[in-house]
Structures are given as C-alpha cells and as structure tokens.
Amino acid sequence: MVDDKGKNMKCLTFFLMLPETVKNRSKKSSKKGNSSSSSSKLPPVCYEIITLKTKKKKKMAADIFPRKKPANPNTTAVQQYHQQNLNNNNTIPAPNWQGLYPTIRERNAVMFNNDLMADVHFVVGPPGGTQRLPGHKYVLAVGSSVFHAMFYGELAEDKDEIRIPDVEPAAFLAMLKYIYCDEIDLAADTVLATLYAAKKYIVPHLARACVNFLETSLSAKNACVLLSQSCLFEEPDLTQRCWEVIDAQAELALKSEGFCDIDFQTLESILRRETLNAKEIVVFEAALNWAEVECQRQDLPVSIENKRKVLGKALYLIRIPTMALDDFANGAAQSGVLTLNETNDIFLWYTAAKKPELEFVSNARKGLVPQRCHRFQSCAYRSNQWRYRGRCDSIQFAVDKRVFIAGFGLYGSSCGSAEYSAKIELKRQGVILGQNLSKYFSDGSSNTFPVWFEYPVQIEPDTFYTASVILDGNELSYFGQEGMTEVQCGKVTVQFQCSSDSTNGTGVQGGQIPELIFYA
Q1: pTM metric for this prediction
Q2: Residue 349 neighbours by CB distance under 10 Å
Q3: Do 225 and 233 touch, CB atoms closer than 8 A?
Q4: Among 346, 406, 446, 467, which has the minimal tally of Cβ within 10 Å of its Cβ?
Q5: Are 230 and 238 in contact (CB under 8 A)?
C-alpha cells in the first residue's frame, strides 16, 4: 500500500529514476537464472521516493477569487454524463457503450471517475473529509511519470487502495479529468489546490494552466496571498506578476484582507521592498493588522506586547523615520508598539541637527516612477476655445501590456493663472473602475498638470477603456492638436479612439486629456 501521509506539514512527493549499480543488477540476474532477452536490454533503473516538506500552509482560494458561474444547463447527453461522473462512481449500463463514442479520446473520457474496470482506488483528502475515487493504472501512468513509477516502477506496490491525505478531492478530480479527458476545468476556489496536485504528480501542462488562471485573476486584493503561494510552488513568473501589482497598488494590497493571511517570510519581503508605492503610515498600520491576526493564529492574547513579539525584527523594516511628522505623532508614536526610547529617538531624528542612530531603516523607499503617454504633437489656444461648462471630455484607449493608470495630465488656462475643479473617471464597458474629484492650479503655461486617482487602476491589455474628465473653470484653456492614434511609450503601446461619452469636442485629433499617467 502506497501511503503519502503528512503529519502537521504538507509534503510534495516525487518518484525519481536513479541508476542502480551494474554490480547489483548482475547479482539479481544470476540468482534468477536465464531471463528473456527483452528484459536484459532494459536500462538498470530504480525508483526512489523523495518527499519535499514545507512548513508553509497550502492556501485555499475560496476567499481570493469570485466564484465561477454555474454551467449552462443546455448540455448534451454525453456532457451530462461526464458531469455526473464528477460526482459519482458510475458504471456503464449499455452493453455496447463503446459505439457511442467515435474517438479514443471520448472513450477514454468515459472511464473518468468510473468504477468500470478500475484497478486502483484513491482515498483522497484529510481525515474526516475523504473521498474514495476510482482509477485505471494504465491511463494514470500515461498521464503522469509519478503514477507510472507508482504502478509500474521497480518499487511499485500492488495495492488496491492508495491514501492521499494532503490533496483535496476536488483538486484531485480536476487533475484526473485532465489526464483522462484532456480537458482543463479550473475553478476559482480550487485552483491553488489543483496547482499543488499538478506539481506533486508532475503534470506540467495542467500546472501551467493553473498559473495562467491565477495570473489573469490577479488583483490587489489577492496579490499578497498569491505572492506567498507562488514562492511555495516555485513559479517565478507568477511571483513577478504579483510584485508588479503589489508595487503599483501597494496601499490597496496592504489594506486587503489577504495581506493578513501571508506567512512571516512573505511579510518580511514586502516590508523590505524598495519599490513599494505606499505611504509609510499605511505600511505600519498593515503590519499591525497582520500582527493581530498572527496572534490569533498562535493562540496568543491580542496585546501590544504580543503584536511586537510576533513582528520581531520585521518591525525595523518599517521605515518609520520617513513618515510625515503628523503621521508619526498621531499614529506610530501613540500605537504603543514602540518603546519610549524609540519614540524619543525618532522625534529627535525629525527635529535635531545631530540625529541619533536608529535601528529602523531611515531612507525613504524609491517607489515607482510614473510614465506619461502624450498623445498630441502640438497644442494651441484660441479666443473661443477650449471652454468648459460642465461638459465631458472623453477618449478611449487600449494598451498591449498590463499597466496601472495613476491619473491624467490636463491642460490649463491660456489666459493667465487659474484654478480648475476636475472630476476624472476611468471606465470599462460602462463600469466605473476609478474616479476622483480634485482641484489643480494652472500657471498660464501650455504645460500639462497632473490630476491623480486615489489609487492606481489596473488596466488589462487588448481592451478599450474610457478616460473622462469634467472640468469647471471660468478661463479658456489650451487644447491639443495633431493627435496620434497610436503612441509608443517605453515598452507599452497605447492606441486611442474617439469616445461617444465626449460632449465637449475632445477626440483623437484634438482636445483635452493630453496625457495618461501610468505605472508599468
């Protein structure tokens, strides 16, 4: 019986092919006597089971992604049968069921989760949540080198039942469906567990599909959790994508519920991050929120002393001396987490000419440098343009890479200094993704003036978004001319087209919203 139980920690089990000494092989062959010529030609191999242990907890994605919509009820009889196989171990009642399916792929799929001709069973899931699933050794061995070693390798054990306590039944079924049916059926609440199963049983194409699913579902709300899991699963591409989101939308990521679920190592890596685009008071508050949840995980009373205890040396990765003085005085200094000496020294750091030595990092983070995409080749002003009376200037744009729109650059007054009230908005298919109401002061020059969203807005490639602004001001302003339909800005290509929301004359060739300000 093959049993890959795990006690208090998760295990990744792999069957590796290792060369066996010729000497040992010759001894075996001499004891057995004459053997067939075909068997003597086989390469001398043996299989060693290697279990990789990790203290990190395998994270479920139920709270990370929205649930998948139920399948369309208008399915064929064969599709309904396959769906029934997901839930039950059925046998085929028809005597000539093979004739119903024209291809070997379809006939093979009938065997998925089916007791008919099953020569092995798996008891999958932790104690109290197990499910007994049928399997067919030949099919499994064709789909996974681990199953091949398990059933046909030299260390194979001829057991009818195999226990797998560290894989969830739904994830194991998803892997079996890929092996039997050549179909990838991923759900938001099981994709991480499916990735774990695909890694454990070395099913690389399914693992890649899981990673692609996670990348397309990536947002500020789940980026910190996925960062932790991507390191566990050793997926550097996914790790890099997580960092891009965390850097650009740092404050949203740090305020998300998922941030409190990360492990200590991931917490340290985030607090150490030089390009984190967030105010330091937000970083400090996020660390305290994480410490509170960590106290609960360790069954410790939630107190100031225990918060500091679980944070340990990570507390000094927070760059408290770089906070605004008001943020420090009204926030960190009164949190109780800092000692009296630390509080006094930091106040001296702000005010004294001779600054004390601090354990805290005292250099401000570099953050991210915003890029500007300018879509006009020239600008102008006339005696009767560009005037604002509460009408909307709007333009549509699309990018070829994921970016994060931080704000717009807008033209200002052409008649001397003036102040404008600007309501900026970003939409996708009519849904508002970000908006902000603010004021900006123009000095009478033809320069553009930045107006920012509260948080950067994530923009996916190859989809048109609508950028809009409603300006309120008494003065005429400059406006753009000789607009371009496509602009190359660094490694990002931006395309522009006219928007039906524009009621004040802005379009591709001329008007307002001359710049998109973004992180990439």
Answers
A1: 0.75
A2: 18
A3: no
A4: 446
A5: yes
